[in-house]
Amino acid sequence: xxxxxxxxxxxxxxxxxxxxxxxxxxxxxxxxxxxxxxxxxxxxxxxxxxxxxxxxxxxxxxxxxxxxxxxxxxxxxxxxxxxxxxxxxxxxxxxxxxxxxxxxxxxxxxxxxxxxxxxxxxxxxxxxxxxxxxxxxxxxxxxxxxxxxxxxxxxxxxxxxxxxxxxxxxxxxxxxxxxxxxxxxxxxxxxxxxxxxxxxxxxxxxxxxxxxxxxxxxxxxxxxxxxxxxxxxxxxxxxxxxxxxxxxxxxxxxxxxxxx
Length: 260
Description:
By secondary structure, this protein is mainly alpha-helical. The two termini are 36 Å apart.
């Protein structure tokens, strides 16, 4: 029976974490165009909160935020064992994969539809008229402003998360995992929540600054709540890695990452 070496196990861990990270980031981009009502999900009426004078907000969120906190949690685990270098590598690679995804979607949405496909899908399940090609293009198309905004927000948020995590780790002398994980997420999620809105809807769009602040606060509140609730999963991830690598190997890997 072949026994895996420590190096092979470490590579497997990085591939697994990287795969989860990239998958969540790309999927979040694909599903992000849908806006859902959090109040309706809970069976509640619209909140209509007056955060800023003359502008009321409801808890309407992009579907992408459902899984986005997972990206930052996995990022923290990668930072824990592979340092800032590991986070940078996977972040830059993810940007490349997201750009590739947008390119493929651009090509796919511009392909001429087959006549039989349009006819076979000319009505929905209730018998209503349906333009399947229009629906397909609408769902998978994304404006240039949103592409620029989402990639900018992702990359800036990730790099900030990596550096804040490393700074807190140094200050706490490698103790208090929850503090460096939550602390780095507090800062990075704040940037991620507002950068995408500022770029896409304020600088390149027609939103007012008050709208950006109002919607950004809702997004940020949601992301932070979910991230904090998922803190136990960070410890579960550390436990699983220590179990797979062995406590001593996991400790040495973490110490090496701390020095990067």
